[in-house]
Write a structure and sequence with these properties.
This protein is 37% helix and 18% strand. By secondary structure, it is α/β, with parallel strands linked by helices. It has an 8-stranded mixed beta sheet with strand order 3-2-1-4-5-6-7-8, with helices on both faces. α4 runs parallel beside α10. The relative contact order is 0.15. The structure holds zinc ion. The site of zinc ion has 9 residues, from α8.
Length: 251
């Protein structure tokens, strides 16, 4: 780290749990962020400010006026711009040292596998089950930890999946792909503005902890928030030996 970096990251370095080795791990890391909307905004801003060396943003959408109520890395001036380009501007304004890679596409399964393979950690900030399951499959296959968040109306949830750990469950152990879940999206259902900030910020925290090797990750625990009552519920869950993604003897 140079003198500027020692200053920029001094409040991390002052933390015994992070110190210089932890900050070096953050600087050397590559985070893959799927989605640049409500969850992706705080995720991208915190990962950039905290000094994750390389951040890849994936989103094929453009900034719309209806996004600005909650997608805090976009601005009124950038309405109409690709979300990943708007995100890169916001991130580099905070921290010009971060290498931001943008992918303005709805990525195929093959593209996703290639992106996941090069990442230290993946943050799922998408808004649909098909993407979540595709991201999970790629993460399990390539042994990359996944921080998954979701937020709709006043309800949020977050968990971490890291099948490199013995007996740690994957996303599909918790939400079996063959089961039908009610698909609700912000575009039709509405979402309480700071809810995505709460969940997204927690996703960023879990990703930074994983990379810097701090504390205990949220593995095997699903945290559910009811923001109406500001009440958290924790659900413990285990690997499903019959899981079509991580089950069997290959792990
Ligand atoms: Zn599984």
């Amino acid at each position: 780290m140079n003198d500027q970096q020692l200053l920029r990251y001094s409040r991390h370095i002052l933390l015994d749990e992070i110190d210089i080795p932890g900050q070096e791990r953050l600087l050397a890391a590559h985070a893959l962020v799927i989605g640049s909307g409500g969850l992706g905004s705080p995720v991208a801003l915190y990962l950039a400010s905290a000094g994750i060396g390389k951040i890849t943003l994936v989103d094929d959408d453009t900034v719309d006026l209806t996004n600005l109520q909650r997608q805090i890395m976009h601005t009124t001036q950038r309405v109409g711009m690709l979300k990943v380009a708007s995100g890169r501007e916001a991130m580099t304004q905070i921290n010009p040292d971060v290498d931001v890679v943008t992918v303005a596409e709805r990525v195929s399964e093959a593209q996703l596998a290639a992106l996941v393979q090069g990442a230290s950690v993946v943050l799922d900030c998408s808004d649909n089950f098909a993407t979540r399951h595709a991201v999970n499959r790629a993460c399990v296959h390539h042994g990359v930890p996944l921080v998954s968040g979701a937020a709709i109306r006043f309800d949020g949830q977050i968990s971490v999946f890291d099948t490199r750990r013995k007996n740690a469950p994957c996303y599909a152990c918790l939400f079996p792909p063959d089961q039908q879940f009610e698909e609700v999206q912000c575009s039709t259902m509405g979402v309480f503005s700071p809810l995505v900030g709460i969940i997204g910020t927690m996703q960023a925290a879990e990703a930074l902890k994983l990379v810097a090797q701090v504390g205990e990750p949220l593995i095997g625990r699903l945290q559910i928030l009811d923001a109406r009552r500001m009440e958290w519920t924790t659900i413990q869950f285990q690997r499903n030996s019959a899981c079509p993604v991580c089950g069997g003897t290959h792990l």
